[in-house]
Each structure stands twice: as C-alpha cells, then as structure tokens.
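Cross-posting from the modeling subforum.

Setting up a comparison between two proteins and wanted a second pair of eyes on the formatting. Protein 1 (sequence, then structure tokens):
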Amino acid sequence: MPHCIIEFSSNLDAVADIDGLMQKLAAHFRTAPEVFPTAGVRIRAIPVDRYLIADGNPDHGFVNVTCRIGAGRALDIRKTFFGAAYQIVKDHLHDLSQTRGIGLTFYVDQADPDGAWKTNSIRSFM
C-alpha cells in the first residue's frame, strides 16, 4: 500500500517535470515488490495554487512528498528504501534548485492497521 503524494507549488508545474518525477518514484517502488507489492503502488501529484513561501518571493517553490505505507516494514528497510527515494527527488530537482529557491520535504507515514481498510482488484487485471 505505498501511496506517494507529491504536493508542489504550482509555479513549478511548467519547469519541474513532475510527471517525470512520478515515473521515477514508481520505478523505484517497483524495485522492491517483496516489500511494496506493485499492485499497491499509488503515486499522485497535486499542484497547490495558494501558498506563501519564506519571504514571499513568487519565484520560490516547494515540493512536499508524503509516502504512506502499511505498518510492518523494518526500520532499516524503511530508511534504506525511502532514503533512496528522497535522493531520487533531490536529484530530479537539483538543476532547478540551482536557479530558484525550492523547499523540499519528504515524509514517511505508517498507517495504523486498526484504522485502515483496503480493497484491491488490480492484481487480477495485471
């Protein structure tokens, strides 16, 4: 159940290739199907039109990635896997961050197994 939600300031939409970033993150998730089954991978991007960053300079941008996973993965697996995912995002934004201020945050949340319900018929269509 790896859900990756990319929120980003809409001023980056035309210059940050967010679709390409989504593809890179999806490819990374598919490298570990024993940890994150491919049928459960969900990656979405949400441009944010209303925001205020730092000193209000309209050229500043932000990217916030939140990955939500089911409970049960060992800490070392989470640190290694998501450390690599964070590096993918940093590398993707590197050149752009050399031309403008970009705030990047990356969080991993684990779902409470007692507060999560899921249904998935995707496997039968793969």
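Protein 2 (same layout):
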Amino acid sequence: MSLPKYQAYRDSGLPWLGEVPAHWDITRLRHCANVQTGIAKGKDNDGKQTVVVPYLRVANVQDGYLALSDVATIEVPPDVLSRYTLQYGDVLMNEGGDVDKLGRGCIWRDEIPDCIHQNHVFSVRPHAVSPEWLNLLTGSAYAQFYFMTRAKQSTNLASISSTNIMELPLVLPPKEEQAAITAFLDRETAKIDALVAEQEKLIALLAEKRQATISHAVTRGLNPDAPMKDSGVAWLSEVPAHWTLTPLGRVTKDRCDGPFGSGIKSEHYRDGGALVVRLQNIRSGFFNKGESVYLDEEYFLAELQGHNVHAGDVLVAGLGDDNNLLGRACVAPARLGPALVKADCFRFRLDAARASPEFVAWQLSAGAAHDAGVLATGTTRSRIPLGAMASRKVALPPVDEQSEIAQFIAQENSRLDALKFEADRAIGLLKERRSALIAAAVTGQIDVRRV
C-alpha cells in the first residue's frame, strides 16, 4: 500500500522523532494525563478493616490485550480503593519486564468490576487526549525508543519510573484527525492480525500433523497392508503382527540409571565440566541443550562416573506436568562431552542389536500422555518410578525396520520444520509491517485521512 505524505512538515525538536506534520502539536504526557502507580503487595493491615478485591498484575497486562484467566485477589483497607481502582479508559502500562515490551499495555474497559492494580502496573488516565490515541502512541516504535533510552536495564529486563513516563513526548494531531488515523489503523491492523492468525493456525495444524505422523509410524509402521495383532497395551491397541512386545528394561544393554543427585552440592557447580542432564533438557524426540548446568569434572570422575551419559542413550523424563509430559524421551546427542543424569531423569542404554534408540524415544514420547496416567504417582506433578518405567512395554519391529521408521520420521520432521519456518517468517514480516505502519501513521510520516 503506497500512501501519500502531508504537504508541510516541521522539525519536532526531537532527533529520534524527526519531522512531524506542520499543523500537529507536541506536548508531554503530563499535560494530557495523570499517571497512577499501583498498590504494593505485603503491606501490614493488622487491626484494619479490609475488603477483598481483584488485583491486576504484570502477567495480566500483555502487549495490546489483557490476560484475565488468572486474576489474583488482595486484601486492602476500603479507604485506598478510590486511589487504586481502575476506571474505564485507563491506559495500562507495565513498569518493567522484557526490554522490547517495556511500557506497552492496553486500554482498560471495565473487564472486571472494582479491580485495582499492583505497583508494577501504571494506570495512565487521559484527560486531554483520547485513550485510543494515547494507547497507539505508547505502543508505537517511537515511544518504545523513548522508554528504552530512559529505563534502568539489567540483562534482558528493564524498568521505567512514573516520572519518565510523564515526560514522554506526545504528537497530537487535531482530534478529528486522531479519530481518522485511529480508524485507519483499526482496519489495517485487523487485516494484518487476521493474516497472522491464519499463519498461527497453520503452525498448530503442522504440530498436529507431526504428532499424528510420529504416533502412526511408531505404532503401525510404514506398511499399510501389514497384518495386525492386538498388543494388549491400551494406548498401542493393534500393532503389526511381526512386532514384539517387551518391557523396556529387557532391551537395555547396561543397567538403567536415575534418579539420584542428593550428594551434589552447589560448590560442585562450575561454568564447565560434566553436563548435568535435567528435565528441561528432555523434550519429545529431541535433546534441548538449554540452560546448561555443569559439575566439577574431578568430582564427577571420582564419585559419579557410573551415572554417565553416552551418545545414543535414551533419556526419559520421570516427572511431568500439564505442559511437559511425563515419560517423554529423547536420544543423547553426539559430542555431548562428559554428562550424567540427575534427579527425575532416567538413562536407558539399549542393546543396539534389538532396539534403535531413536525409534524407542519416539515411541515412548508418543505414549507419554497415556502412560503418565497409568504408571505415574503423585497429584499436581506426576512421577514415574524407575522400576515402573523399566517395565513399560514397547512394541518393537526388527531393528532394521526400526531404523527405517526413525529415518522416515526424521525426513517428515525436516519437511514440517521447513513449513513451520516459512510460517514463522511470515508472522515475523507481518508483525514488522504492523509495527511500521502504526509508527508511520502516529508520527505523521504518511497521510491516511482520506484512505
């Protein structure tokens, strides 16, 4: 879309903003709105009358929307409610968080009655500018630049004070022009958001396709005409007649290992040495190096070498929750270096003549959701004892067929990864286009009044 520029511009006086339309005003946020900080949790209310009210936290205020599935409550004296209760049209802004989201938020539209906000969420109450225009400005790239240059930063986190928020320069077209720009951006961003949603839907379908492909391959094989038999295992149902059902421990070449680790102390941790394989390293079908933790290699060699991990070992998660399935498995990659399994992780070193590590890891992961309910103990977090995991039945074709199936899965995953990469790339480009369009419109780099 090629859009015209305004006829006349003037210098904004701000090097990072540049020129703005000649008839636009520039002011500071403090002249157009009041900035209200929130209430701090943990105040002593002993002996005071209190009421319980909803309490908006940083996690609830996202970039452009509210996440209200989990809203906390807080006890406060009634006399503070008038100060902290949110009002319709307040522009919510987070005081801190990820650098790229600093200061961004959304408009409060009385989604929850009598709701207050915490001290890490600013409530900006406009009186000389519309909430819609103010929200567009504070979420734009030029405001983001301002926030980043004035924030206190540490690593990837940042925070900004209410004083700096109040000094944010605001570009103000005439009110009717603000409304025209807002309407234009509502239409155009809705179109972009719809395209993003389509790509996200495609990514979800690709994930479903991946799971279905893997599950079918490791339970039915690649020959659609193969005779079938009842496996006697509920989640497996029927498997090809020539496959063998056997406990996982029966195809283990070396002893099963894990969990352990009570002897490991903080003084053993180092920046390098022996890698400690933890739950976060084990994903369904792949090893995630993630945030690595190491042990002193001398301590490892002296005390823990019997717990070592070799390339090709099957690693299984013995603990899980709703987001990370218990029983998921992967194969330890090559060039891992000295490594060992720690608490709630199991290591199975398979007999290569009978079992392919890749095939077994994929099949364990495919059945993880079912096994978590059958083999597990515990309530909030499911746990599988090592003995139960070793007795878990696996359905094994001949080892060359296992390798063929594992290779097929690898090829399909590669194809699906390429499609997901393209969808992710499209989403990135669309979001860049959205951000650039908003920034250009609210700073007057394009004239959208008649579009």
